[in-house]
Amino acid sequence: MKAIAVSKFKDAPEVMELPTPTLRPGTLLIRVAAAGINPYDWKLIDGIMDGHMKHQFPLIMGNDAAGTVEAVGEGVTRFKAGDNVYGQFIHSPIGEGAYAEYAIVPEKALISGTPEKASMLEAAAIPTAGMTAQQLIEKSGLKHEQILLLIGATGGVGSFVTQLATMQGIYVIATVGDEKDVERVTKLGAKETINYKKLSVEQQIKTKYPDGVDGLIDVASNPDAFKTMSGLVKKGGVALTTTFVADDNDLKEKGLTGGNFEMKGTVASLDALTDAVDSGLLHVPVEQVISLDEVPAAIALSRQAKGKGKTVIKIN
């Protein structure tokens, strides 16, 4: 089968011909229809989990995916052949990933039935970005009509945060890089936009909201920029970052809660997103669809944080 893999940590990913995975007890063999690209995928091939989980090489990349169960191993009860499933395919050993025509996934992995009103391409874009956004908003504790400053609104997580926050009546101020972004995030629910390439986000917020905003969700900033952005949040507010650049002492001095945030996925979280998609409340922001052959170039762009919306790989 065709797959995207590396032969050792920090190698450039490449297209390889590899054996189709062999079914084991308690696992599913899934014919992968589509896989979503996330920064965590290339962090794994850089060795972020080395020493924490078993790895195997060639290491097939990929976590988020959607596909159809081809066969089930002994003892599997949740799914049967022919079921359409999606979720996070990551498991031990790392290297049996989703950037492949077939993937083997334990029944106990974070997977569930696909949304009825989403295509396989859309379903593959949901898991990591959708659950991260969902849990960021829950963690923020922001309520109806409170003001959220969202840094990094145009990426996959930001696109979901904008929608899910808007669904709860939270007033979203989104940072954007061009006019096309303005149109896109406004359509997703943002009430205000600030073009960070033309204007100072800091000055714009201080001028319009001298008392500060209620919360900050930042999925893009470096340590210095996050420190500046968190200074725009009023005392008693919340500042969260997914890039692990928060200084807890600095936030404490500012009277803020929050800090570094890591998503912990659950099937319940995934099913809540499924319900939101099927009810028509949540739009899945697939920005680009590529082939397996185009993945190495797309990973290089992801490393440079140049992604907009979600990039999804069409596989089968």
What does this structure look like?
The chain has 316 residues and is α/β, with parallel strands linked by helices. The chain folds into two domains: 2-125 and 284-314, Alpha-Beta Complex (Quinone Oxidoreductase, Chain A, domain 1); 129-260, 3-Layer(aba) Sandwich (Rossmann fold). 29% of the residues lie in helices and 30% in strands. It is built from ten helices and 17 strands. It has helices at 39-45, 120-125, 127-140, 156-167, 179-188, 201-208, 223-230, 248-253, 267-278, 295-303; strands spanning 2-6, 14-17, 27-36, 55-60, 64-72, 84-88, 94-96, 102-106, 110-113, 147-151, 171-176, 192-195, 213-218, 233-241, 257-260, 286-290, 310-314. The strands form three sheets. Strands 3, 5, 6, 8, 9, 16 and 17 form a seven-stranded mixed β-sheet that branches. Strands 12-11-10-13-14-15 form a six-stranded parallel β-sheet, sandwiched between helices. Helix 5 links the parallel strand 11 and strand 12 (192-195). Helix 3 crosses helix 4 (156-167). The radius of gyration is 20 Å and the shape is globular. It starts with a strand and ends with a strand. The mean pLDDT is 95. GO terms for molecular function: oxidoreductase activity. Residues 11-313 form the Enoyl reductase (ER) domain. This is Zinc-binding dehydrogenase. It comes from Chitinophaga oryziterrae. Pfam families: ADH_N, ADH_zinc_N.
